[in-house]
Every structure is written in structure tokens, then in C-alpha cells.
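Practice problem 4.
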């Protein structure tokens, strides 16, 4: 089970509202981080709202509607069954920035659909728009895609890497009228702010272990970022990347990727950031529900399988390959520290237990970076 499956992050994408005072916006997921450590209640559609929204789509009479309790609690989702099939309806608060980002993501999905890349189909309204704006909300409707989850097989892992490369290749010359988000988990002042925030919150704690863990993670994050910069990160061109390539965002059939489900984090960044996150997410070794029991190592076979699939299509240069272990460290620390800075925990795990696990794994990658790089280059 990858890191992505272990917690419902507090994601608030209404930073432009005058009522909100975000500490920072996490550049890979567009999170707005506030100091209050309270997980919001999950929002829902009202029956009146649902009737109003579905009337804008040509999906026929609705027979059944069921809430989908997954992902961001402030972004309600509904599975709708009608005469035309099954659909996924999603609502988000409308802001100018978010509207641009959703429009960019839709443009990317539509472009990929034209070359038969496995994306979910966006439904259009009666006036042929993929974004429905009602009052202060944005609505999106997707055709529901059945399929199985990642089974951990070598064939599925290779295909996940291969399809990421296909996505990058198809979007190499992509252009549209909407301004894309930029940035990544690499060398992010926002990640550093989160590390500092968690450290500050624990200064009065009698348990010094969390402070020591945060300090070690901060050192690893900074050193990893510096090594990536020395390898030439700032000279690597930006391209359209998925931004959140992990098994939970995919469906498979017969060990082939059949649908990519989530383009919310699509942005411009060097391709290697997408590859590093994918390699990490597919090679994480977990086990029991308690992160304290997780082993420190990664699944090196899956790491190589994913990268093999990618390199079948797109070649990375020597320095990009050498940067992968350090980027994996940065990605893992970034993904863990952001929700902990907001809520004080990661899902059901305490901050200490989860961050100690992240530190063990990050230290293992750092210790074995030469061995991993040699395996990747071969």
C-alpha cells in the first residue's frame, strides 16, 4: 500500500477567499495549510443541489446516487447511476486560480483522449462545457470507469512506468490558453516551512524524539535538494507532468493500465519529478497498519520494473538517473510532512510513528543511493 492510501489529507483549495489565511500552498497538490489542527467534516451534496446539477448534463433520469467517501473531505463526490450508465460527480469551491487549474487539467485530459490514452471521459453540459459553474462552486462530471486495482505484478508495474512515459510523450508539445500551475516537491520552501512548523509545535513536548526526527528529515531534505541542483535540475526543461502518479489513481485490467483517474495535480515541472514520484510510490514496502513495523527498504524489483517500462519510451540522461534517489527522498518527506503540519498526525498514525518510518526509509535510500543508481543505469 503506497503512502497515498494511508490518510485523507486536509485539502482546502479556497485560498483566495478573504476569510482564509493560509500559511502556505503546497506546490504539488495545491494544499492550503492553516494552523488549526481539526480535520473538517466530510461535505455532501444536498438532494436539491444534485437535482440542479444533473439537469445540466445529458445523462438521462437518475436511478441511484451514492456518496463516494474518498479523498479530500471538502470536495464531495457522488456516484450516479442513470439510463446512460454510471458517472462520478465532483464539487469544488470556485476561485479564479482553481478555475484556471481545472480548465488546464481538462484541456490536458481532452488532448490525451484524442490519442486514445486511458483517461476517464469528461462529460459536457448542454452548452458543451466540461466545467459547470453554479453560484460559488465548480462541478465536474466523469463517466465512471470500472476496473481493478494494482495487483503488484511485474507486468502491471512495467506498464505503469510505460504509460507515464506515453503520457509525457503525448504531451510534449501540448499548449492551451490556460495558465498551468508550476513547481514540485523539489527544493520547496513550503516543505521547509512545514518541517519548521511541526518542529515549533513540539518544542514544549517532553519527548525529544520528534524534534530529533524532524531535524534529521530537514537535513536529509536539504542535502537531497542540493545534490539534485548540483546535477543540473535548474537546466532541465519543464513539461506537462501528471504530478500524482501512484497506484491509487489508476485502474488495471489483465495487468494493463486501463484508466488514469486524477489529473488535479497536473502542472509544469521537469519530467524526472514525475518519474521519481512514480518509482517511489510503486516500490514502497509497507505491511501492517502500524508504520512503526514497516521495513526500511524499498522493493527494488518494482523500482526497476517501473523504470524499465518508462525507459522503453523515453530516455533519461545520466544525471537525471543519478538524481532519482535524492528526488525520491524529497518526495517522500514532502508527502508526509504536509498533512502532519496541518493535523498533527498522518491518518491514524501519530506524527512520531509516521515520521520515524519516513526517516528510516529516507536514510535507507540515502545509504543505498549508489547501489540504486547503478541498478537504474544498467
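Answer key:
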Amino acid at each position: 500500500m503506497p503512502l497515498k492510501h494511508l490518510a485523507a489529507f486536509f485539502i482546502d483549495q479556497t485560498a483566495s477567499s478573504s476569510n482564509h489565511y493560509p500559511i502556505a500552498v503546497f506546490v504539488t497538490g495545491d494544499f492550503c495549510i492553516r494552523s488549526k489542527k481539526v480535520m473538517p467534516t466530510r461535505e455532501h451534496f444536498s438532494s436539491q443541489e444534485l437535482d440542479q446539477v444533473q439537469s445540466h448534463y445529458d445523462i438521462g433520469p437518475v436511478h441511484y446516487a451514492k456518496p463516494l467517501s474518498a479523498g479530500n473531505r471538502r470536495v464531495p463526490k457522488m456516484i450516479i447511476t442513470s439510463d446512460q450508465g454510471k458517472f462520478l460527480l465532483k464539487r469544488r469551491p470556485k476561485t479564479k486560480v482553481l478555475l484556471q487549474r481545472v480548465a488546464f487539467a481538462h484541456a490536458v485530459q481532452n488532448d490525451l483522449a484524442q490519442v486514445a490514452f486511458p483517461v476517464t471521459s469528461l462529460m459536457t453540459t448542454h452548452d458543451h462545457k466540461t466545467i459547470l459553474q453554479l453560484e460559488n462552486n465548480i462541478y465536474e462530471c466523469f463517466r465512471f470507469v470500472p476496473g481493478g486495482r494494482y495487483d503488484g505484478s511485474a507486468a502491471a508495474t512495467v506498464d505503469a512506468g510505460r504509460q507515464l512515459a506515453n503520457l509525457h510523450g503525448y504531451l510534449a508539445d501540448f499548449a492551451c490558453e490556460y495558465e498551468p500551475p508550476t513547481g514540485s516537491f523539489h527544493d520547496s520552501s513550503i516543505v521547509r516551512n512545514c518541517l519548521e512548523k511541526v518542529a515549533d509545535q513540539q518544542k514544549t513536548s517532553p519527548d525529544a524524539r520528534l524534534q530529533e526526527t524532524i531535524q534529521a528529515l530537514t537535513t536529509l531534505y536539504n542535502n537531497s535538494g542540493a545534490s539534485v541542483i548540483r546535477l543540473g535540475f535548474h537546466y532541465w526543461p519543464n513539461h506537462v507532468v501528471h504530478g500524482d502518479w501512484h497506484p491509487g489513481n489508476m485502474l488495471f485490467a489483465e495487468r494493463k493500465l486501463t484508466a488514469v483517474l486524477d489529473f488535479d495535480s497536473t502542472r509544469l515541472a521537469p519530467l524526472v519529478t514525475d518519474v521519481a514520484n512514480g518509482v517511489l510510490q510503486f516500490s514502497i514496502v509497507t505491511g501492517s497498519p502500524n508504520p512503526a513495523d514497516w521495513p526500511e527498504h524499498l522493493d527494488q524489483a518494482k523500482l526497476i520494473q517501473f523504470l524499465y517500462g518508462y525507459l522503453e519510451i523515453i530516455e533519461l540522461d545520466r544525471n537525471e538517473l543519478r538524481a532519482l534517489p535524492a528526488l525520491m527522498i524529497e518526495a517522500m518527506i514532502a508527502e508526509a510532512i504536509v498533512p502532519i503540519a496541518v493535523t498533527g498526525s498522518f491518518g491514524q498514525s501519530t506524527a512520531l510513528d509516521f515520521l520515524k518510518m519516513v526517516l528510516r526509509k529516507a536514510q535507507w535510500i540515502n545509504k543505498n543511493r549508489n547501489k540504486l543508481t547503478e541498478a537504474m543505469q544498467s
